[in-house]
Design brief:
163 residues; alpha+beta; Peptide Deformylase; five-stranded antiparallel β-sheet; two-stranded antiparallel sheet; 7 strands; binds zinc ion; peptide deformylase activity
Length: 163
């Protein structure tokens, strides 16, 4: 296993769209690396393959207190969404910056687990926000893309200062 480098804005690779995984076996080692990379961060609760420069449609999430309950989503898709919710978000690719983002309150997401088994998550908890944030990454979108140009400039300045 290996801890991978996490890309930060304005890296152009964060704008690439992920491609569906075709062979589950081919990505097992990568999933281990993605998990190790997330756990290596101080407070990372989710990480998309896009953030480490990969175009696999894979994301990992762990919202548990002890960080011992990883969720792996391969080829995730939002099946339905409902309601509105505004909450503060941060991102490992935009260190040092947090802002309020408007999202759907409730989502249903379908994906494959790391054994290739299809499953569905229906949630209106914090997980719904994390899922939307991470799935945005797979579409080449970071959370500041949802904000004003002014806020995007502030975010970029913070990231450059923190580097
Ligand atoms: Zn992020």
């Amino acid at each position: 296993m290996a801890v991978l480098d996490i890309l930060t804005i304005p890296d152009e690779r964060l704008k690439r769209k992920a491609r569906p995984v075709e062979n589950i076996d081919d990505v097992q080692a990568f999933i281990d690396d993605l998990l190790e990379t997330m756990y290596d961060t101080e407070d990372g609760i989710g990480l998309a393959a896009t953030q480490v420069g990969s175009q696999h449609a894979i994301l990992v999430i762990d919202l548990s207190e002890d960080r011992d309950q990883p969720q792996v989503l391969i080829n995730p898709e939002i099946v339905s969404s409902d309601g509105d919710f505004v909450g503060e978000e941060g991102c490992l690719s935009i260190p040092g910056y947090r802002a309020k983002v408007s999202r759907s309150e409730k989502v249903t997401v379908k994906a494959l687990d790391r054994t290739g088994q299809a499953f569905e998550i229906e949630t209106d908890t914090f997980l719904a926000i994390v899922l939307q944030h991470e799935m945005d990454h797979l579409n080449g979108i970071v959370f500041t893309d949802h904000l004003s140009k002014l806020k995007q400039q502030i975010a970029l300045k913070k990231v450059k200062k923190n580097r």
